[in-house]
């Protein structure tokens, strides 16, 4: 994406306020759309080459959770889940006492593999999203394998998981859907739908353009799914969008998601409203740098706060050739 195009999107998103751009096209100092922090890259947290479990030389889709106030005797204050994507994949864990690291790889990785008898045997499992379920006092892991199927496993300690069920398949979506993966689940009330949880995920179909789909649930177990996408790739000028994450700010709800590198490689933001009735596209939430490690692509963000400081943990670099990085707000 050109610097002029990035400037246009950022200016539109901030209501026409002029922005000053510094090195590598990054805005010098400005709030992100919606009043969110202006995240800046700090450091790389994990690279495949440093990991003992490294079957494919690539890792994706980080999910960080503070567990110090939830688990008894955790390995560290924060658990970071991630995975290779290509076969055999495997859901992995690293832990640290600070979101800025250093993170230590759990020696028993993967904590969930692609062969879990008698529940499934698939080519790969990937895209871990872990949600703290306060009602059950468990960490609930949503993950995919194959790309057509999203599954749920549950844990009392964040390390040892019990398989629960399949929660999403392409057969639950409109005809022609070919992928239903990269799901994240959030506690969010939708009273009109009798729902307490919302899922956002990537869906693909026979046109081979990826959109953000969504669903809702009363309990995080049984789900209903919208026929129309939450974010249509064409509506935001992208070829593909994926890696969605919900955020709240100022009494409203937003979804952030990344575009493929051909469409700019940035993280975009759309306001949904608390009832998900809006589709106000606000432009660029995080503008990827051309410099390493991002090299023109930032993707699959997750968020946390440590000592009152907001952080974003995300994929940095080309798909299946990048690292897990940290940005600070």
Automatic annotation (TrEMBL):
<dbReference type="InterPro" id="IPR006311">
    <property type="entry name" value="TAT_signal"/>
</dbReference>
<keyword id="KW-0732">Signal</keyword>
<feature type="signal peptide">
    <location>
        <begin position="1"/>
        <end position="31"/>
    </location>
</feature>
<dbReference type="InterPro" id="IPR023296">
    <property type="entry name" value="Glyco_hydro_beta-prop_sf"/>
</dbReference>
<protein>
    <recommendedName>
        <fullName>Tat (Twin-arginine translocation) pathway signal sequence</fullName>
    </recommendedName>
</protein>
